[in-house]
C-alpha cells in the first residue's frame, strides 16, 4: 500500500487507521458505507491507490478499478428488495462538490418516493445548432 498518502481520509480507511463499515474489499478496491447514508445502503468505492479523481486516471487505472462497479451496484441493490434504482456518481474537483480528494464512486440506493433530488438543469433553449457544433468540435480536438 505504498501508493497511499498520510493525510488522506480514504487512505487512512484503506490502511485501517480509521474504522469503516466495509462491504467489499480486494487487492484493488475497498467499498464501505458512506457515513452520511443519503439513503440506507449508500456505499463508496475507492481504489487502493491514491488517485485524486478521474482526471488523474490512466487507462490502466480505469481497467483495474472501475471493473467492480457492476458487482458493487448489484450487491447494494440486492440488500433491500425495496430499492428500485440507484445513482452511481463521482464528483471530480472542488467545483463538482468533491470533498475528499481521493477518487471515489457513490452508490446511492433509490426508493420510490424517497424525495431525494439530484439537481440538474435543462439549458437547451440557450444553445443554437452552431453552439452545439462548436462545443462538440472543441471536445473532439482534445482526443
From TrEMBL:
GO terms for biological process: nucleotide metabolic process. One of its GO terms (molecular function) is catalytic activity. A motif (Histidine triad motif) lies at residues 102-106. Residues 9-117 form the HIT domain. CDD domains: HINT_subgroup. The active site is at 104 (tele-amp-histidine intermediate). PANTHER family: ADENOSINE 5'-MONOPHOSPHORAMIDASE HNT1 (PTHR46648:SF1), HIT FAMILY PROTEIN 1 (PTHR46648). This is HIT family protein.
